[in-house]
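Case study.
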Amino acid sequence: MKSEIEVFREFTRKKGLRNTPERETIIKEIFATHDHFDVDELYLRLKNKKKKISKPSIYRLIPHLLESGLIQEAYFEDGHFHYEHIYGHEHHCHLRCLRCGKTIEFQEKPLEKLEGKLAEEYDFSVTGHKLEVFGFCPQCKVDPHVAKVEDAGDPRRQR
Amino acid sequence: MKSEIEVFREFTRKKGLRNTPERETIIKEIFATHDHFDVDELYLRLKNKKKKISKPSIYRLIPHLLESGLIQEAYFEDGHFHYEHIYGHEHHCHLRCLRCGKTIEFQEKPLEKLEGKLAEEYDFSVTGHKLEVFGFCPQCKVDPHVAKVEDAGDPRRQR
DNA sequence: GTATGTGCAAATCATTTGCATTCTC
DNA sequence: GAGAATGCAAATGATTTGCACATAC
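After joint prediction, the assembly is written out as follows.
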C-alpha cells in the first residue's frame, strides 16, 4: 500500500501542483497519531517539534488533502473544523449531544449500497461520506427540561 | 400536528426560556420556504419584509431551535453553516463535490436501525442525523487531474 | 525560468459579547 | 419584579490575503 506521502506526491504530479518539504512535514504529522486534529492543534504539535511551519501553509494545504482523499472533515466544534485522516484507516462516524456537545465515535457498516446508488443516479464519483447522529446524552436526557445544568457549554459556542 | 410555533412555545415553557414576538417572527420566516437558509440570508429576508430583527437575535435563537428539533445543520459552505428546518418535513441528505462544492440533495431511507442500535448502546436519546456523501461531480471527475478549471471556487473558501 | 508555495503581517468576516433597555412570565 | 431577550456597537478569533522572497519542476 502506498504511503500517504506517496499518495500526495502522485496527487500533486497529476494536478500540476508542487510538493514541498513543508507539506510533507505536515502530512507526516497528521498521520503520526490516530486522533482527530484541528488546524491550531496541528500547528502547535509542529511547533513543539521545532518545525517552522506557518498556519497559512496548513490552511492552504487542507483543501488539497480533502481533494486527494487523505483527510476528511470529522465535525465542526468550538468554532472550527476537526479533521480525521482517512487514508488507510477505518473511518468512523459521530454521535453528538445537542445539549452539551459531547461527541462519541462509532463504527458503522459502510453505506456502500447507498454510495453506489448515488454514484449511478447522479453520475458522481463517490469517495466517502460523513455521518453524524444527533440526540441527547445520558446526562442531558435525564432531565432535558431543567433550565440550567452546569452548562458544559453550547454545542455551537465560540469562534 | 402542532405548528412549529406551538412546538417552540412548548419548548420554552418546559425549559424556562421566554418566547418573544421576535422569535416567532424568525421561526415563521424560517418555515416560510422549503429552502435551506443561513443567518445572513435569513436576516436579509426579514429586513426586506421590514421586520426589525437583529442578527444577534438570530444567532441567539439558533441553538434553541437545534435543541428543540425544529432545525438542523445542513452543511457548512462559504464560511458558514446552512440550516434546514426539519420539523414536519422530509429531511434530506447531501451529495457534495470535493472539487467545485456543488451540492445535490437526495432522500435516503431512514437509518432507523442504526439509530436504534446507537440509542441502546450509548444510552442516548437519538433525534436525527446528518449524512453527507462526498465525491466528484460529473464535470469535475471528467478530467480530475487538470490543474485549473474555471474554478467555481474552493469548497472551503471564505470566512 | 516560471509559476507555485512560504512566512509574515494585515485584512476579512462570521459569530459572540457587554451593556443599557425592554419585555415575558 | 426578576430574569431573559433585544439591539447596538465593539470585541473575538478562525481563516484568508497581499506581498516579497524562496524554491520545485
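Observations recorded in class. Confidence is low (pLDDT under 50) at residues 144-159 of chain A. Chain A has six helices and five strands. We will return to this complex in the next lecture.
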